[in-house]
Amino acid sequence: MHPALENLMARGFFAQCSNVEGLSRAMEEGPVTFYIGIDPTASSAHIGHMVPFFALKHLVNAGHKGIALMGAGTARIGDPSFRSETRKILSYEQLDHNAAAILEQLNRFVGFDGTNTLTANNKDWLASLNYIDFLREIGVHFSVNRMLSMEAYKVRMETGLSFIEFNYQLLQSYDYLELYRRYGCRLQIGGDDQWGNILAGVDLIRRVEGAEVFALTFPLVTTADGNKMGKTLKGALFLDPSITSPYEFFQYWRNVQDADIRRFLLMFTFLPIEEVDAITADGKNPNEGKERLAWEITALIHGKDEADKAMSGARAAFGAGGDKSAMPCVELPRSRFEAGYNIIDLFCDSELAATKSEARRLVTQGGAFVGSGSGELSSIGDVNALIGAESLTQEGELTLRAGKKRYCLVKAT
Description:
The chain is an alpha/beta fold. The protein is 46% helix and 15% strand.
């Protein structure tokens, strides 16, 4: 196996490959051009989108050429793969806006140079397609029976699959064909939920061009307990700092399970495998590994300065020094504390609880902690408790904690 593929396999970026030996030979013959597709269905990418882009950087570092394909064309339809319901249709203007925002995020991470790392947008060839000509040239190569047998479509057949979504696989396959013709692209990589779509593109190029190209997918990343990776109480772990702050982003990784540390260090950092092994060796403090993981990936996504501030804020929250100013912060009226701030209202207003019923459960289950004037945290179990001004520090601050890991610094104004 080619060293570039061995590295991907060692770091966890390997689920299925259409022809490992053939792809290895192609890589030995010279640089292979490959691509990753991402549909701009939101204004920000989330961490799940970034798994293939970590693989992209590994392949580019090994001498190959990567293309990030923005799917402003395919997103007009929406990918039905393994979705229980039809994706919301966005306006063309919104899709273009999303594509520009995501491309800017990816550029900060990848650093597109136009030579070894390029960008493309499938809107450029899909938006002007003649439907009849497309069916005659492309549709003729697809078997409806075969498409319906794919697991990705089976899921939707029970709840209803619209005809517009049924076309998605044809368009994604056509993307691969276009990139083969325009750039000599011979490999598509992506999550394992895209295996059927990618393989369809491989087959289309074989039928139309008589050429062999390849498919490589990665395992869908879950946590050690089987949950989807990158999910927080507020939803997905987005790259946009206005949606997921660098502190919240850092804290997600700082709080991963011990069993996930090594796997995530391999996938979400570029530390050498030997260094990862040393960090996670038997007898090592897992908290040090978590902090290193959190700092490395926060620095990659948000920059080293933000990673330093997030680490400092996390250490302050957990009483290990650091700078409290980096903690999540909310300003609340001092008059509310002077009158007695109800504990339920306080946790809702500080956004540590989304609703009053959630705050009530937090309190009754012993998960609501409030700092005293000296800074010590005490559990509050009475839903009628009132937090007075005496709980504030001399600077007019108060630390709240929900559960074991979520903190908020309250500033009384």
